[in-house]
UniProtKB/TrEMBL annotation, chain A:
Record's protein name: Glutathione transport system permease protein GsiC
InterPro entries, alphabetized: BPD_transp_1_N, MetI-like, MetI-like_sf, Opp2B
GO molecular function: nickel cation transmembrane transporter activity
Keywords, alphabetical: Cell inner membrane, Cell membrane, Ion transport, Membrane, Nickel, Nickel transport, Transmembrane, Transmembrane helix, Transport
Phylogenetic lineage: Bacteria, Bacillati, Bacillota, Clostridia, Eubacteriales
UniProtKB/TrEMBL annotation, chain B:
Short name of any one Pfam family annotated for the protein: oligo_HPY
CDD domains: ABC_NikE_OppD_transporters (cd03257)
GO terms, biological process: peptide transport
ABC transporter domain segment(s): 6-257
Keywords of the record: ATP-binding, Cell membrane, Hydrolase, Membrane, Nucleotide-binding, Transport
The protein's name in its UniProt record: ABC transporter
PROSITE patterns in UniProt: ABC_TRANSPORTER_1, ABC_TRANSPORTER_2
Bilayer topology: Peripheral membrane protein
Broad class of where this protein is predominantly found: membrane
GO molecular function: ATP binding; ATP hydrolysis activity
EC number of this enzyme: 3.6.1.3
From TrEMBL, chain C:
Protein name (database record): Glutathione transport system permease protein GsiD
Region (Disordered): 1-23
Membrane topology listed for this record: Multi-pass membrane protein
Protein's organism: Acididesulfobacillus acetoxydans
Record keyword Transmembrane helix present: yes
Transmembrane in keyword set: yes
Location(s) in or outside the cell: Cell membrane
SUPFAM superfamilies (UniProt xref): MetI-like
Subcellular location, principal: membrane
TrEMBL record, chain D:
Keyword Transport in annotation: yes
Alphabetical list of SUPFAM superfamilies matching this protein: Periplasmic binding protein-like II
GO biological process, one term: dipeptide transport
Organism: Acididesulfobacillus acetoxydans
The organism's taxonomic lineage, starting at the top: Bacteria, Bacillati, Bacillota, Clostridia, Eubacteriales
GO molecular function: peptide transmembrane transporter activity
Keyword Signal: yes
InterPro entries: Peptide/Ni-bd, SBP_5, SBP_5_dom
Subcellular location: Periplasm
Protein name, per record: Glutathione-binding protein GsiB
Domain called Solute-binding protein family: residue spans: 83-439
Similarity comment: Belongs to the bacterial solute-binding protein 5 family.
Function, in words: Part of the ABC transporter complex GsiABCD involved in glutathione import. Binds glutathione.
Pfam families per record: SBP_bac_5
Length: 306, 338, 324, 526
């Protein structure tokens, strides 16, 4: 297992390298002049040229890339073109906000998604199934900003129970995580339902019933564990997506997370920050896939990590 | 006559799908006495497995429903019990072994836990006592290094070992009735012999009544005291094992016996029963086997034959039983047999 | 042909040994198409469509969704001609009017009839949804087939690329693509299609892997079938049902993605009545005239919901692992 | 637990449909939140964007200036009408050739880190901005400074390389806020995170992307100020969320308020919404080098064809004024012109005279925010009335920048119509006209997207910056404005209002016409 993890971690390095080249060239393919954007809306031509020189954008692309890679090797992601701060610090300050929002969203989405999924699978084609699937599918069909603004309207403005936004207390986590989690809960519910429905037809479920076990033990202990394998993959993927930050939810709830940082950085053509964020996303993705694989092995002893 | 452990009377289990009704079990009577091993024989789709699932109350969401009849188990009508009461019996006083040892064990739970949970549930033993009981049962089914196996997962075991585990699981609470649904079909021949051997030993030791479901008459000859032959949802013939093999009273039984290879018999080709087991959506007018029967007459197509006496403790559902067995046309009804 | 016993195959004639077609059938459980619990619904091979329809019909939610989708398609075809107003007809004296008999869904910030715009927008949203998923599905399926069938470095390469695509934040990709290609509906379709490629590639690859080792493909291969023929004649049909299911479910996602692009100002160019663009402009009037956002939002919600429920129903009906 | 969460979602969905099914009615159910009584003297200001920098010389966004102004002061400041008022300089003289500027400084002022404010400190600041090697974003405002001379401890003289009549405005610009020399030395490049000035407040903490808090400066020189203990600026990008915060009392002051929401908000309990004319103008520039816009009759026709009042009603919910010159009323040397009235007949006539009786096809470029999308749609609808078919291309600003400013040769320019806005941050006519319509300001050098070149205008622009004499400058700008208005390189649309909202107990917090916030003198009244 340990060997497996180490090998996977080492395998990350070339992938990250390729990602860095891809991102580096992709962001520069997008039209837009960071020097002009950094210099401001009414900057003079001289100002813009000065900014360009200051940011090192007047150098040839290859040179810029070499400088960037050299920095990377020293753990330096460069300096934000917009704020002039080190990218590691810029991203670092935003990461925790996104992280907690992701954890809170995933936590309740997983619990509720699982609950709806199990209920729907057990009560297949009964009203509970229809209600569960209808609400779950509604969760993915609702435009997030709409849901978010409505939650603010109801719980903050009308009822005054919860703050409208910001990253201040646990209360301020509730509304954004509800908004962000509703889609994930829906995905988890659907996966759980179909996966559990298959498992409930398996022979070993019949064995468990033949043992005289009560239905809830059969579902939660025997069936669910097996049904969880695909659900865990999906949850892992979703976790990865959410860790990238959600532009819409972060905007609606003034959440100082990575999604807003990305959109701001793109608008400003803040190359080093975009590159830094993208590397972080790639890293997160690889790590999460690794965690998912390890979880597989824990859930299903038959899968051995090679 | 010994006390019956299980007495099935007029059992009808139908499957409902869309607008169709399939009569998978259509009026079956079966009686198993204490310590007796009853073979339930027939081709795939004849209703033998459905009968067993109906007894165990495991039809679940297969779409099947018991619509008539009674199933008395130790004096209680199982069909009238609540789910909760049924659960108390299942795996405790009556248990079941399935055909597929490869898929019948939960791949994510350790062997020890899978056996122990039933013991803890039914016998209310604490963890430690349950554990020693598990160990005991595993040893009883001939599993070497039982301690180690308890901590292993199903994928680490061979098919034969898994079936032993299944048997251990079924026997762990010392049931009065064990239903074994083709327990050896999926296994290699050599392993089959071992498992049958094991079951025979257990049967002798614990005096458990067994309903042994199989399509293999060879196994029946080996294991069973009495045999019920089923076809298309009905009992076609019922007799003690010896009697059945000596004097098969029904053309279908004959067919089955004909398809059995006999050593040293000099037989060139195995016999074949043409056609498949039919599925009934409506009550047919005549004998259900008529379409595949080489002795078919007009009466066979017109009237359903009742179970007719075909010998000592021997019934067969055929108008021409006498013609086959050389026994006088059975006028005796079923009641006379018992 | 159903083989039923009410009408014996050989009537009342003399008994013969031959069964149906004179073929001998072994009384064995092994190879018969019979469920393990000894229960057999049909001995017959009915057409796959009938089989599918029987299963699908039972799902009430999916049936309702299918009906709604048909309605949408009809509106997409005839929408503009039944609309009470021209979708781009402004009326500065009647801006942001609430729903009334004249304007069923009220008017927007230019006094345009929202109901007419939603009708006209149906065609656009459906077109964006269908065509972008189609493009993504075709490319993704081909890549998935190649990846799963040939394996080795081809597989590794395609899968790594799709990993990178998946890890790429959609927003950045969309901004990039639209910035490079320019704004407009067609480029939105391309951007949304690209999101779908890695997903289809993954799904098709995994079913290809499963099918590659099945008996019938092995058999065809041993008979010397060419690779391309094997892929198209034997493997692709096996993956088709999964592709159809995801295709349906992705349509909803694609419509939502296109709407979010409009929300970010990267979508259809005005005055195109794309629902996402309408929703986005309605955002400015949430307190003052909520109907401006409500009706397009509802249109998106119901359409996406319908496609998702329909997709769920398809999956339940097509997936052989889920039995009725 | 799981169930409860689900119930919350369902409840929310349910109430959502209730809220929305009430559309048609005013839709705004009066906020049930009671008028919050303010305890303590700490206020929260909700703003739209993130702060970028706290180094005035390296700042180019009005928002960052707003926060800087609570902590730092300049020699000169602007009052509510953008008139210059003394702050750290008590008085000043300008030489007639507009090359020498002498400032007399206020005595007894210290920076919040204890450094005394004096002529030396001013010199350090001006030298930093005017250093030719400087890469500060606001270097160009002081690029023409030759040298800064310390006359005595409280007198400083700035000498320019060439005359520049608008220089005082540059000193009043927030870029010239005075930073503690000690802090500059101590923090170097990091001064952007550690602002130290003479202002009413001092930086307490700045969490990037979330909030910035300033607290009372105990050493502040003006008696009785500041009146508050702290001000927290919170960045809340979503309009609806910002309004919600004001309603719930989570924010005491918010800006901007979208014009669409003003009506609905004004009635709400304990809230005041204010709107005042800004110095931001909205215009459509027409490429005067290319057909059909090389004909002034066509350009005038477009001016006649668009109903500015309807434009304001549709795009700004009525909260703007039609333009009466190419600069806004609050910009220095503004002189009103005769408006182009909405007159379709006249527009058609002009088009016919120019040889376009049936109109023509053209394309308009603009940014892709929702206001601009709305504005371009309106323009499209209006011009359709005279047969001009407009194709709208709303682009993300970076993309549009490239399309406009990567063009080296004016002949290659693809730009036809361009809808945009301009805010001259110095508040002077020079920066309101020269970068947009001056001859040296064609892309990529400047912002002359109309590719407009008029020798009369260019001469007068030069005249106006050669002198610091207000009368001479006024005369020049009168001529310039008249000529441009006649020539119509733009469709002159409107001057926007600045709109902000606050809770009633807050006094003396307002927006300046340039869109920057003046909150350092704010107080709470009970």
């Amino acid at each position: 297992m340990l060997k497996f993890i180490v090998r996977r971690l080492l395998g990350m390095i070339p992938i990250l390298f390729v990602v860095s080249v891809l991102i580096f060239s992709f962001v520069r393919m997008i039209p837009g002049d960071p020097a002009r954007l950094a210099a401001g809306p009414d900057a003079s031509y001289q100002d813009i040229q000065a900014v360009r020189a200051k940011l090192g954008l007047d150098k040839p692309m290859v040179t810029q890339y070499l400088i960037y890679v050299k920095g990377l090797l020293h753990g330096n992601l460069g300096t934000s073109l917009k704020s002039g701060r080190p990218v590691t610090k810029v991203i670092g300050s935003r990461f925790m906000a996104t992280f907690w929002l992701t954890v809170a969203s995933m936590a309740w989405a997983f619990v509720i998604g699982l609950f709806i999924g199990v209920l729907s699978a057990v009560k297949r084609n009964k009203w509970q199934d229809y209600a569960g699937m209808f609400s779950a599918v509604s969760g993915i069909s609702l435009p997030a900003f709409w849901l978010g603004l409505m939650l603010i309207q109801v719980f903050s403005v009308q009822l005054g129970w919860l703050p409208t936004g910001g990253f201040a207390s646990w209360q301020s986590l509730i509304l954004p995580s509800l908004t962000l989690g509703s889609g994930v809960a829906a995905v988890i519910a659907r996966f759980t339902r179909s996966s559990l429905m298959e498992v409930l037809k398996e022979d070993y479920t019949r064995t468990a019933r033949a043992k005289g076990l009560p239905p809830n033990v059969i579902v939660w202990k025997h069936a669910l564990r097996n049904a969880l394998v695909p659900v865990v993959t999906m949850t892992g993927l979703q976790f990865g997506f959410l860790l990238g930050g959600s532009v819409v939810v972060e905007t609606v709830f003034s959440w100082p997370g990575l999604g807003r940082l990305l959109i701001d950085s793109v608008a400003f053509r803040d190359y080093p920050t975009i590159q830094g964020e993208m590397l972080l996303f790639a890293l997160e993705f690889i790590l999460i896939n690794l965690v998912v694989d390890v979880l597989y092995a824990l859930l299903n002893p038959q899968i051995r990590l090679e | 006559m010994k006390k019956p452990v299980l007495e099935i009377t007029g059992l009808q289990t139908h499957f409902f799908s869309d607008d169709e009704v399939v009569r998978a079990v259509d009026g079956v009577d079966i009686r198993i006495e204490e310590g007796q091993t009853l073979g339930l024989v027939g081709e795939s789709g004849c209703g033998k497995s459905v009968t067993s699932l109906s007894v165990m109350g495991l039809l679940g969401d297969t779409g099947g429903k018991v619509v008539a009849g009674s199933v008395f188990f130790k004096g209680k009508d199982l069909l009238r019990l609540s789910d909760k009461e049924m659960r108390r019996l299942r795996g405790h006083e009556m248990s079941m072994i399935f055909q597929e040892p490869m898929t019948s064990l939960n791949p994510t739970l350790r062997i020890g836990e899978q056996i122990a949970e039933g013991i803890r549930l039914h016998l209310a033993l604490d963890k430690k006592k349950a554990r020693s009981r598990v160990l005991e049962t595993l040893k009883a089914v001939g599993i070497p290094r039982a301690e180690g196996i308890m901590r292993e997962y199903p994928y680490q075991l061979s098919g034969g070992m898994r079936q032993r585990v299944m048997i251990a699981m079924a026997m762990s609470c010392e049931p009065d009735l064990l239903i074994a649904d083709e327990p050896t079909t999926a296994l290699d021949v050599t392993i089959q012999a071992q498992i049958l051997d094991l079951m025979r030993k257990l049967k002798e030791k614990k005096e458990t009544a067994i309903m042994f479901i199989t399509h293999d008459l060879g196994v029946v000859a080996d294991m069973c005291d009495r045999v019920v032959v089923m076809y298309a949802g009905q009992v076609m013939e019922e007799a003690d094992a010896r009697e059945l093999f000596a004097n098969p009273g029904h053309p279908y039984t004959r067919g089955l016996l004909g398809s059995l290879p006999k050593l040293l018999s000099g037989q060139k080709r195995l016999g074949v029963i043409p056609g498949n087991v039919p599925v009934f959506k409506q009550v047919p007018s005549g004998c259900r086997f008529a379409g595949r029967c080489s002795y078919q007459t007009e009466k066979c197509l017109r009237e359903v034959p009742p179970l007719l006496k075909a010998g000592d403790r021997h019934l067969a559902r055929c108008w021409q039983t006498f013609g086959l067995a050389g026994v006088e046309a059975g006028t005796a009804d079923k009641a006379g047999l018992q | 042909m159903p083989q039923s016993f009410e009408k014996p195959a050989h009537g009342s004639g003399p008994p013969t040994l031959a069964g149906a077609g004179g073929q001998a059938v072994e009384p064995s459980a092994a190879e018969l198409p019979v469920a393990r619990d000894g229960f057999q619904t049909e001995l017959t091979v009915s057409s796959p469509f009938t089989e599918f329809w029987k299963k699908f019909r039972k799902q009430k939610l999916a049936m309702a969704a299918a009906a709604f989708i048909i309605l949408l398609l009809v509106i997409a075809l005839i929408g503009p001609s039944i609309a009470p107003y021209r979708m781009d007809q402004p009326d500065y004296n009647n801006m942001l009017a609430g729903p009334s008999l004249q304007h069923l869904c009220g008017t927007d910030e230019f006094g345009r009839d929202i109901f007419s715009r939603i009708l006209a927008g149906t065609r656009i949203s459906l077109w964006v949804g269908l065509s972008s998923v189609a493009v993504g599905a075709v490319i993704g399926t081909i890549l998935g087939l190649i990846s799963g069938y040939y394996g080795k470095w081809v597989d590794a390469m395609i899968m790594r690329i799709s990993d990178v695509l998946l890890a790429f934040p959609g927003i950045l990709l969309a901004i990039g693509i639209i910035a490079i290609l320019g704004p407009g509906l067609n480029n939105v379709i391309i951007a949304v299609a690209i999101f779908g490629i890695p997903i289809f590639a993954r799904i098709v690859r995994s079913s290809t892997l499963a099918l590659k080792s099945t008996v019938y493909v092995e058999a065809a291969r041993s008979l010397g079938a060419r690779n391309r023929r094997l892929i198209w004649k034997h493997i692709f049909p096996g993956t088709a049902s999964t592709v159809i299911v995801y295709f349906t479910m992705r349509i909803g996602t694609a419509i939502l993605t296109a709407a979010s692009l409009s929300f970010l100002g990267l979508g259809a160019q005005p005055p195109t009545p794309e629902w996402g663009a309408m929703l986005s402009s309605g955002r400015d009037y949430l307190t003052q005239a909520p109907h401006v956002a409500f009706f397009p939002g509802m249109a998106i919600f119901l359409t996406v919901l319908a496609f998702n429920l329909f997709g769920d129903g398809l999956r339940d009906a097509l997936d052989p692992k889920i039995k009725g | 637990m799981a169930k409860k969460g689900m119930m919350l979602v369902l409840a929310a969905l349910f109430s959502l449909s209730l809220v929305l099914s009430g559309c048609g009615s005013s839709g705004n159910t009066a906020a049930s939140v009671q008028a919050v009584q303010k305890h303590g003297k700490n206020i929260t200001v909700a703003v739209q964007d993130n702060f970028v920098s706290m180094d005035p010389g390296d700042t180019n966004d009005t928002l960052s200036f707003s926060a800087e102004k609570t902590m730092m002061e300049g020699l000169i400041g602007f009052d509510r009408e953008m008139k210059m008022v003394p702050v750290l300089a008590t008085s000043w003289q300008v030489s007639p050739d507009a090359k020498e500027y002498t400032f007399h400084l206020r005595h007894g002022v210290i920076f919040s880190d204890g450094t005394p404010f004096n002529a030396e400190a001013v010199k350090v600041n001006i030298d930093r901005l005017s250093d030719p090697k400087s890469t500060l974003k606001r270097h160009s405002l002081f690029a023409m400074v030759d040298k800064t001379v310390v006359v005595d401890n409280y007198t400083v003289k700035v000498i320019l390389k060439q005359p520049f009549g608008a220089m005082l405005n540059n000193f009043a610009h927030p870029a010239a806020l005075m930073v503690s020399p000690k802090a500059l030395q101590k923090y170097g490049k990091d001064i952007a995170r550690h602002p130290v000035g003479t202002g009413e407040y001092m930086l307490k903490e700045w969490v990037q992307g979330d909030h910035l808090t300033v607290v009372k400066n105990p050493h502040y020189w003006r008696q009785g100020y500041p009146k508050l203990d702290s001000i927290t600026f919170r960045s809340v990008p979503e309009n609806g969320s910002r309004i919600a915060m004001l309603k719930t009392g989570e924010a005491d002051f918010i800006y901007p308020v979208p014009p669409e929401d003003v009506q609905a908000m004004s009635g709400a309990n304990g809230i005041t919404v204010q709107h005042k004319p800004s110095i931001i103008v909205d215009y459509i520039s027409m490429n005067t080098m290319k057909k059909p816009f090389n004909d002034s009759r066509v350009r005038q026709a477009l001016n006649y064809a668009i109903d500015k009042n309807a434009f304001i009603k549709v795009v700004y919910s009525g909260l703007a004024e039609p333009m009466t010159s190419e600069i806004a009323q609050n910009v220095q040397f503004f002189s009103p012109q005769q408006p182009y009235k909405y007159d379709l007949a006249k527009a058609k006539e002009l088009l016919k005279a120019a040889g376009y009786p049936n109109g023509f096809d053209t394309t308009i470029w603009s940014n892709n925010n929702s206001t601009y999308i709305k504005a371009t749609q309106f323009i499209q609808q209006q011009l359709a009335q005279v047969g001009i078919k407009v194709k709208i291309e709303n682009m993300e600003s970076g993309t549009m920048d490239t399309k406009i400013w990567s063009v080296q040769n004016p002949q290659d320019a693809k730009i036809q119509l361009y809808f945009g806005g301009w805010s001259p941050s110095t508040g002077d006519a020079d920066w309101g006209i020269r970068p947009l319509l001056g001859k040296d300001m064609l892309p990529p050098k400047g912002y002359n997207t109309a590719y407009y070149q008029n020798s009369v205008v260019n001469n007068e622009i030069q005249q106006a910056i050669q002198t610091a004499d207000p009368a001479q400058r006024k005369a020049a700008y009168d001529q310039i404005q008249k000529a441009i208005w006649q020539d119509a390189p733009w469709v002159f649309l409107d001057t926007r209002d600045n709109i902000y909202g606050f809770r009633n107990y807050l006094k003396d917090a307002y927006l300046l016409p340039d869109g920057s916030l003046d909150i350092q003198n704010a107080q709470i009244v009970r």
